[in-house]
Design brief:
Shape of chain C: globular
Order of helices and strands of chain A: HEHHHHHEHHEHHHHHHHHHH
Low-confidence stretches of chain C: 1-26
Membrane topology (chain B): Multi-pass membrane protein
Radius of gyration of chain C: 19 Å
Number of strands of chain C: 11
CATH topology of chain C: Rossmann fold
Structural class of chain C: alpha/beta
Keywords (chain B): Cell inner membrane, Cell membrane, Membrane, Phosphate transport, Transmembrane, Transmembrane helix, Transport
Strand order of the largest sheet of chain A: 2-1-3
Largest sheet of chain A: 3 strands, antiparallel
Bound molecules: adenosine-5'-diphosphate, magnesium ion
GO molecular function, one term (chain B): phosphate transmembrane transporter activity
Strand content of chain C: 15-25%
Structural class of chain A: mainly alpha
Number of helices of chain A: 18
Number of helices of chain C: 12
Distance between the termini of chain A: 52 Å
Chains: A mainly alpha (about 425), B mainly alpha (about 450), C alpha/beta (about 290)
Helix content of chain C: 25-40%
Strand order of the largest sheet of chain C: 1-11-10-4-9-8-7
CATH class of chain C: Alpha Beta
CATH architecture of the largest domain in chain A: Orthogonal Bundle
Strand content of chain A: 5-15%
Pfam family, one (chain B): BPD_transp_1
Function (chain B): Part of the binding-protein-dependent transport system for phosphate; probably responsible for the translocation of the substrate across the membrane.
Largest sheet of chain C: 7 strands, mixed
Order of helices and strands of chain C: HHEEEEHEEHEHHHHEHEHEEHH
Distance between the termini of chain C: 25 Å
Largest interface: A-B, 89 and 94 residues
CATH topology of the largest domain in chain A: MetI-like fold
Mean pLDDT of chain C: 86
Low-confidence stretches of chain A: 1-10
Oligomer: heterotrimer
Helix content of chain A: 55-70%
CATH architecture of chain C: 3-Layer(aba) Sandwich
C-alpha cells in the first residue's frame, strides 16, 4: 500500500473538520428545504387564489334580482277582438303593459329620458314572462296580476353590491334619480334576490340577466357524445392493435412516435385541421357539435391510446399465455381475457380524455362554435357553442353582470370536471390490481 | 340528414339478418354437427355480418363526407357566369347564402330569382343524392353480404376470416393517428403555400411589422397588409419566457421537495392538489388573467410609478406559468423517481445531507430528463391559446418589456380566423402560415424532448 | 452457554462473553459465542428493527472491534443488511423502518437525539452490493465526500486525497490516465473499487460493506478481498457476504444470522471449523442456505 506524504488528515482531525462545517451545512439544508416548502406553498396558493377569486366573483350569479310588478292585463291591449286565439295572445304587446305598470308605480316620472330610464329597470325578458303567464291562463285577461319578473342587470348589480351606492353620481352607472326609484321599490318590498333558475334553463342572451348556460351545456353534451362515441372505439382499437398485434417494425415505430408527438401538438392546430379539412374540403356544417366532436376526437385520441396501451401493458403476459395455452387464438385471448382486464384502465384514460375535451376552447373557436346563439341546440347538426366557449364569449362582454355569470359558468364547468375526475379516480381505485 | 339514421337502422337490420343466415347456413352445411365445422357457427354468422356491414358503411361515410362539397361545386357551376366570375371571397358568400336558403335560415337581403333557382337546384341535388345513397348502400350491403354467405363451407375458416377482418379494422384505427398528422401537415402546408405566393416567405419570417387588418380594406390589393411575423414570435417568446421563469423553479422545487422531503401524507395531499392546476381549462386561466391578475399588476405597477399596459405580457405569462407548474412538476417527478435508489444510498451512505444528495447527485443524474420535461413545457407554453387570447391583446409590439402589451402567434391565428371570414384572403391564409410555424416548432420541441426523455429512461432501465 | 466459549475468551471481554439472553419476545433465540470484544469500536445492545409489523432484527447485541473485519453470514432475508444499515442509520431513509436499542460508536449512542447522521455517516461509511458510482467523472466520484464535508481547503489537497484514496483502493494505476471519464464507464469490479475509494476518501472509522462482491467476477472479487485485508490496518470493516469462503478469507470474526436472530459469533476459524450451534452447523455444511 502506498501512502503519498501526509496529505490525509488523521481521522480525528477530519472528524473535527466535518463537525466544524456542520453548522453551515445544516443551514444550507434548512434553506433548501424551505425553498421546497415555499415552492409547494406558492403552487397551492395560486390554486386557492384562482378558485377563491372565481367563486367569490361567481356565486352571486346563482341569485338574480326579481322585481314584483302589478300589471293590469287590459283586454283592449292584448286581445281587442276577444278571440283568445293563441296567435293573438302571442303577438300582443306585453312590453307596453309592463311600461304602463311602471308608470303607474311612479306616476311622477315624466320626460322621455326619465321614462326610458324607468322602463329600463325591468328586464326585456319580463314581457316574455308575462306572455307565457297569459298564454298559460287566458282567463287572467282583464284582471290585475302581480308577478315577479327579472330586474335589469344594473339593478341586479346594485342589489348585489357591485355598484357602489355611495360613489359620486358621475362614477356610477346608476344615476341618482334611478337610485331613488330603486330605493322606493326596495322599501315597498318589490325587489328581491331569488334563485336564478333561468341561468340553468335558458340559452345565451344579449341581456345578462336573461343569459343562461343551457344552450352551451347542450352544445357541450352533444359535442362530447360525438367525441366519446368516436374516440373510445378508435382509441381502444388502435391501442389493442399496437400493443397486442402489431409487429415491431419501422411502421409501428412511426405510429408510436407520431402518437406521442400528436399528444403534445397545440390544440389550436387541431382547430386549423378542422377548418381546412372538415369544413373546406368535406363541407361539414360550421358551428355544429358534430364538427366539434370530430375535431376533439382527433385531439383526445392520443391521450386515450396512450392510456389504453398502458392499461394493456399492465395485464401480465401469463394471462395471455394461459389463454393461448388452451388453444385460444391470439384474437380470442385478447378479446376475452386481456381487454376485459384492461378495460377499467382504458375507461379511466377515456374519462381523462373527455375531461380534456370538455375544457377545450381554442379548436372550437376555429370551427365557428363561437357565434352568438340564443337557441338551445336540439341535435348534433344545430349550430351551437360549448360551455368553455360561452365562458370566453361572456368574459369578453363589457357588462359588469357578465362577470359573475362567467364565473358561475366556470364553476359549473369545474364542477363537471371534478365529477369526471372523481369517477376516474374511483374507477382506478376500485379496479386497481397488483399482479 | 334525417334519413341517415333510418338508413343506419336498416343496415343494422340487414346485418343482423346476415348474422342469422350465416349461422343457419353453417349448421346446414355441417348437417347440424358442429364438430364438422372449422369454426364455431357464430363465427360464420359474424363473417357474413361483417361482409354485409363494412363495405356499405365505408360507402356511407365517404358519401356523407363528400356529398356537400360535390353538390356545392355542381351548384356553383350552374350559376350564371357573372356570379362565377366574382372571385373566391364573394363566391363564398353567395354559396353561404344558397346554403342558408336551402336550410330555411334567414338570409341577408332579399333573395333574388337566381339565388332561389340555385337553392332549388341544390335541394334537388341533395334529395337525388340521398335517394341514391339509400339505394346504393342497401344494394351494396345485400351483394357483399351474399358474397360472404356464398363462401360458407364446412371447411371454410370463418374464424380466421373474421379475425383477419378485425385485424384490418384495428390497423385502420391505428392509422387514424397518422392520418391526423398527415391532415394537419397537408392543411397547414397547402394554405401556407398559397399564402407565400402573395407574401414572400422571407418577409413573413423576418419582417418587423405585422398589421394584417390593412388587407381587409376592399380598395387595397390583398397583399398590401404587413405580414412580418417577427413581433409575434418575439411576443410569444417573451410570454413563454415569463411563464417558464415562474413554472420551472416552482415546479422543479416542488417536485424535488415532494419526492425527497415530504412525508407520505403531505405528498398524498399536495401532489394531487398541484395537479388540479393542470386540469383547469385554459379558458378559466384566461378569465383569471384578464380580470384578476392583469388589473392587479396594473394597479401595483401604478403604485410603484410604473406604466403597465392593461394587457401586459407579464399577466399572461404569470398565469401561464401557473398553469404549467404541475406540468413541470409531474414530469420532473417521474424523472426524479427514475433515478435509481442506489445513487441516493451511495450519497447518504457517505454522510451527504438531503440537499447535497439532491443537488450533487440526483439533480445532475436527472438533468437530461428534466431538460426534456422543460422542453415539453415550453412547447406547451408556445402553443397555449386561450390565456393569451384573453389576456395578451392584439398589439404587435416588438418589445422585451414585460409590462407592455404584446401579441402572440396563437392570438393572431384566432383573431384572423374567428368570425365570418372569406377563406381565401391573405389574412386567413396568414393564419395557416402561422399555424405551420407553430406546428413545426412545437413538433421539433416535442420530438427532441421525447427523444431526450427516452434516452434518459433507457439509461436507468 | 457453552464451556468452550468461556475458555476461548482470551481476548474477549469476560462479562460480555456470556451468552446474551433474550429479553424481548418469546421467539427470540439466544446468541452463542463471543459477542463482546475488548475496546470495541461499535457496541450494539438489544437492537430490534421493525419494518411496519415485520420484526426483522430481534434483540441483537454485538461488538465490532478496532482494526478487525467482522463478517456477517446467513441465509438471504435473515436481516444481515438490515442490521448493517443500523450501524450508520441508513435505515432512516426507509420510511416504515423502526430501530430500537443501543448502538454505541466510540461510546456514543448513535441513535440518540442529538446525534446528526451526517457526521455519523462520515465516520461509518457504506459500500453497497451493487456498485453505485455517481454518473460523474472518476475524480468527482472520489472527491464527492471530501467536497461535501469540506475536508480539503485547496484543489491541490483534493488532488492528493483523490490520488491516495484511489491508490488505497488499488485502482490508481488503472484509472490515473482517465480521471475525467465517467465512473459508470468502468468495469463492475473497478466500479466497486471506485465506490470503496469514494468511501475511504472521507477517512471513516468504520466501513460497512453489503455483499460488495456479489456482482463481481472472481478476479475482481480477489482484488477487492485483497483490498479489504489492506484496509483493515486503518479501518474497522463490517462485511456482509453470502459466500462462506469469502468470510473465511477476509474476516477475523464471523457472525451467523438466522431469521432476524444472531445465532452465533466466533472467531472466524473457530466458527467454520467447530460451530457451536446446530443452525450454524447446518448452514456451513450446506444443509440449507
Ligand atoms: N424496506 C423494507 N420494507 C419491508 N421489509 C423489508 C425491507 N427491507 C428488508 N425487509 C425485510 O426484512 C428482512 C431482512 O431483510 P435483509 O436485511 O435485506 O436480509 P438479508 O440482507 O439478510 O438478505 C427480510 O425478510 C425482508 O423482507
Ligand atoms: Mg442483503
Amino acid at each position: 500500500m502506498t501512502n503519498p506524504g501526509k496529505a490525509l488528515p488523521e481521522g480525528a482531525t477530519s472528524f473535527a473538520r466535518i463537525q466544524a462545517g456542520m453548522a453551515k451545512r445544516r443551514a444550507a439544508e434548512r434553506r433548501f428545504k424551505m425553498l421546497g416548502r415555499i415552492a409547494v406553498s406558492v403552487g397551492l396558493l395560486f390554486l386557492s387564489v384562482l378558485l377563491i377569486s372565481i367563486v367569490s366573483k361567481g356565486y352571486t350569479a346563482f341569485w338574480q334580482t326579481q322585481m314584483r310588478i302589478d300589471v293590469v292585463l287590459t283586454a283592449d291591449e292584448i286581445d281587442p277582438d276577444g278571440t283568445r286565439s293563441a296567435e293573438t295572445l302571442r303577438k300582443a304587446d306585453y312590453s307596453s303593459l309592463i311600461k304602463q305598470s311602471m308608470r303607474d308605480m311612479f306616476p311622477e316620472v315624466s320626460g322621455r329620458r326619465d321614462k326610458f330610464a324607468l322602463y329600463g329597470l325591468v328586464s326585456n325578458g319580463a314581457a316574455f314572462d308575462l306572455r307565457d303567464k297569459v298564454m298559460a291562463d287566458p282567463s287572467l285577461i282583464g284582471t290585475k296580476v302581480s308577478l315577479w319578473v327579472p330586474a335589469d342587470d344594473d339593478v341586479d348589480m346594485l342589489m348585489k353590491g357591485h355598484i357602489d351606492r355611495n360613489a359620486a353620481e358621475d362614477d356610477r352607472r346608476i344615476k341618482d334619480n334611478v337610485l331613488g326609484w330603486i330605493n322606493q321599490l326596495e322599501a315597498e318590498d318589490r325587489l328581491e334576490l331569488r334563485f336564478n333558475i333561468d341561468f340553468f334553463t335558458k340559452g345565451d342572451s344579449r341581456d345578462p340577466e336573461l343569459a343562461g348556460i343551457r344552450g352551451a351545456l347542450m352544445g357541450t353534451i352533444f359535442t362530447l357524445i360525438v367525441t366519446l362515441s368516436l374516440s373510445f372505439p378508435l382509441g381502444v382499437a388502435a391501442a389493442v392493435y399496437l400493443e397486442e398485434f402489431a409487429p415491431k417494425n419501422k411502421w409501428t415505430d412511426l405510429i408510436e412516435v407520431n402518437i406521442n408527438n400528436l399528444a403534445a401538438v397545440p390544440s389550436i392546430v387541431f382547430g386549423l385541421l378542422g377548418l381546412a379539412v372538415f369544413i373546406n374540403v368535406f363541407g361539414l356544417p360550421r358551428s355544429a357539435p358534430l364538427l366539434g366532436g370530430l375535431v376533439l376526437t382527433l385531439m383526445t385520441l392520443p391521450t386515450i391510446i396512450i392510456a389504453s396501451r398502458a392499461a394493456l401493458k399492465s395485464v401480465p403476459p401469463s394471462i395471455r399465455d394461459a389463454a393461448l395455452g388452451i388453444g385460444a387464438s391470439p384474437m380470442q385471448a385478447t378479446l376475452y381475457h386481456v381487454i376485459p382486464l384492461a378495460l377499467p384502465g382504458m375507461l379511466t384514460g377515456t374519462i381523462i380524455g373527455m375531461a380534456q375535451a370538455l375544457g377545450e376552447t381554442a379548436p372550437l373557436l376555429m370551427i365557428g362554435m363561437v357565434a352568438f346563439i340564443a337557441d338551445v341546440p336540439q341535435g348534433v347538426f344545430d349550430p351551437s357553442t360549448a360551455l368553455p366557449v360561452q365562458i370566453y364569449l361572456w368574459a369578453d362582454s363589457p357588462e359588469r353582470a357578465y362577470v359573475e355569470r362567467t364565473s358561475a359558468a366556470i364553476m359549473v364547468l369545474l364542477g363537471f370536471l371534478a365529477l369526471m375526475n372523481l369517477v376516474a379516480v374511483l374507477l382506478r381505485k376500485r379496479f386497481e390490481r397488483r399482479w | 340528414m334525417t334519413q341517415t339514421p333510418i338508413l343506419l337502422v336498416l343496415l343494422l337490420a340487414l346485418t343482423s339478418a346476415a348474422y342469422y343466415f350465416g349461422c343457419k347456413r353453417a349448421f346446414r352445411v355441417a348437417d347440424g354437427k358442429i364438430r364438422k365445422l372449422h369454426s364455431l357457427p357464430g363465427y360464420y354468422g359474424l363473417y357474413v355480418a361483417l361482409w354485409a356491414a363494412l363495405p356499405a358503411l365505408l360507402i356511407l361515410c365517404a358519401w356523407l363526407l363528400f356529398q356537400g362539397s360535390i353538390i356545392t361545386r355542381m351548384v356553383v357551376s350552374s350559376l350564371p357566369d357573372a356570379i362565377q366570375q366574382l372571385g373566391p371571397d364573394r363566391l363564398n358568400l353567395v354559396v353561404n347564402d344558397i346554403r342558408n336558403l336551402v336550410s330555411g335560415n334567414i338570409v341577408s337581403g332579399e333573395p333574388d330569382a337566381i339565388m332561389l333557382a340555385a337553392a332549388d337546384y341544390y335541394r334537388g341535388l341533395l334529395s337525388v343524392s340521398r335517394n341514391m345513397l339509400f339505394a346504393i348502400v342497401l344494394i351494396v350491403a345485400g351483394l357483399s353480404g351474399w358474397y360472404g354467405y356464398s363462401k360458407i363451407r364446412a371447411q371454410h375458416r370463418a374464424r380466421n376470416g373474421v379475425e383477419s377482418i378485425i385485424n384490418w379494422l384495428l390497423v385502420a384505427c391505428s392509422t387514424v393517428a397518422i392520418l391526423t398528422t398527415v391532415g394537419i401537415v397537408l392543411s397547414v402546408l397547402f394554405e401556407s403555400i398559397r399564402f407565400f405566393q402573395s407574401v414572400p416567405i422571407t418577409e413573413f419570417l423576418f419582417g418587423l411589422e405585422w398589421s394584417p387588418q390593412i388587407a381587409l380594406r376592399a380598395d387595397q390589393a390583398g397583399s398590401s397588409g404587413a405580414f412580418g411575423a417577427v413581433p409575434l414570435f418575439a411576443g410569444t417568446l417573451l410570454i413563454t419566457f415569463i411563464a417558464m421563469t415562474v413554472a420551472v423553479p416552482i415546479g422543479l422545487m416542488s417536485a424535488l421537495y415532494l419526492a425527497e422531503y415530504a412525508s407520505a401524507r403531505v405528498r398524498a395531499i399536495a401532489k394531487p392538489l398541484l395537479e388540479v392546476l393542470a386540469g383547469i381549462p385554459t379558458v378559466v386561466y384566461g378569465f383569471f388573467a384578464a380580470l384578476t391578475v392583469a388589473p392587479f399588476i396594473r394597479e401595483s405597477g401604478g403604485f410603484l410609478g410604473l406604466d403597465v399596459a392593461s394587457e401586459s405580457a407579464l399577466a399572461a405569462g404569470l398565469v401561464m406559468g401557473m398553469m404549467i407548474i404541475p406540468f413541470v412538476s409531474s414530469l420532473s417527478d417521474d424523472v426524479i423517481n427514475a433515478v435509481p435508489q442506489s445513487l441516493r444510498e451511495g450519497a447518504y451512505g457517505m454522510g451527504a445531507t438531503s440537499s447535497e444528495t439532491i443537488r450533487r447527485v440526483i439533480f445532475p443524474a436527472a438533468l437530461p430528463g428534466i431538460v426534456g420535461a422543460i422542453l415539453l413545457a415550453v412547447s406547451r407554453a408556445i402553443g397555449e391559446t386561450m390565456i393569451v387570447v384573453m389576456a395578451a391583446g392584439l398589439a404587435s409590439n416588438l418589445t422585451a418589456n414585460p409590462l407592455e402589451a404584446v401579441t402572440t402567434v396563437t392570438v393572431q391565428i384566432v383573431t384572423l380566423l374567428v368570425g365570418d371570414q372569406e377563406f381565401d384572403s391573405p389574412k386567413t391564409l396568414a393564419a395557416f402560415a402561422l399555424g405551420l410555424v407553430l406546428f413545426v416548432v412545437t413538433l421539433a420541441l416535442n420530438f427532441v424532448a421525447l427523444y431526450i426523455v427516452r434516452k434518459y429512461r433507457e439509461q436507468y432501465d | 452457554m457453552s464451556p468452550q466459549g468461556q475458555a476461548m475468551a482470551l481476548k474477549l471481554d469476560g462479562a460480555a462473553g456470556a451468552a446474551h439472553v433474550a429479553t424481548v419476545g418469546r421467539d427470540v433465540r439466544e446468541t452463542v459465542g463471543e459477542i463482546r470484544v475488548n475496546d470495541p469500536r461499535v457496541r450494539c445492545t438489544d437492537v430490534n428493527v421493525h419494518y411496519g409489523d415485520k420484526h426483522a432484527i430481534k434483540n441483537i447485541s454485538l461488538d465490532v472491534g478496532k482494526g478487525e473485519v467482522l463478517a456477517m453470514i446467513g441465509p438471504s432475508g435473515c436481516g444481515k443488511s438490515t442490521f448493517l444499515r443500523c450501524l450508520n442509520r441508513m435505515n432512516d431513509t426507509v420510511r416504515e423502518c423502526r430501530v430500537t436499542g443501543e448502538i454505541l460508536l466510540d461510546g456514543e449512542d448513535i441513535n440518540s437525539r442529538h446525534i446528526d447522521v451526517v457526521p455519523l455517516r462520515a465516520r461509518v461509511a457504506m459500500v453497497f452490493q451493487k456498485p453505485n458510482p455517481f454518473p460523474k467523472s472518476i475524480y468527482e466520484n472520489v472527491a464527492f465526500g471530501p467536497r461535501i464535508h469540506g475536508l480539503c481547503e485547496s484543489k491541490a489537497d483534493l488532488d492528493v486525497v483523490v490520488e491516495s484514496s484511489l491508490r488505497k483502493a488499488n485502482l490508481w494505476d488503472e484509472v490515473k490516465d482517465r480521471l475525467d471519464d465517467v465512473g459508470t464507464g468502468l468495469s463492475g469490479g473497478q466500479q466497486q473499487r471506485l465506490c470503496i475509494a469514494r468511501a475511504i476518501a472521507i477517512e471513516p472509522e468504520v466501513i460497512l460493506m453489503d455483499e460488495p462482491c456479489s456482482a463481481l467476477d472472481p478476479i475482481s472479487t480477489a482484488k477487492v478481498e485483497q483490498l479489504i485485508e489492506e484496509l483493515r490496518q486503518q479501518f474497522s470493516i463490517v462485511i456482509v457476504t453470502h459466500s462462506m469462503q469469502q468470510a473465511a478469507r477476509v474476516s477475523q470474526r464471523t457472525a451467523y444470522f438466522h431469521m432476524g436472530d444472531l445465532i452465533e459469533v466466533s472467531e472466524t476459524d473457530r466458527l467454520f471449523i467447530k460451530p457451536r450451534h446446530q443452525l450454524t452447523e447446518d448452514y456451513i455444511t450446506g444443509r440449507f442456505g
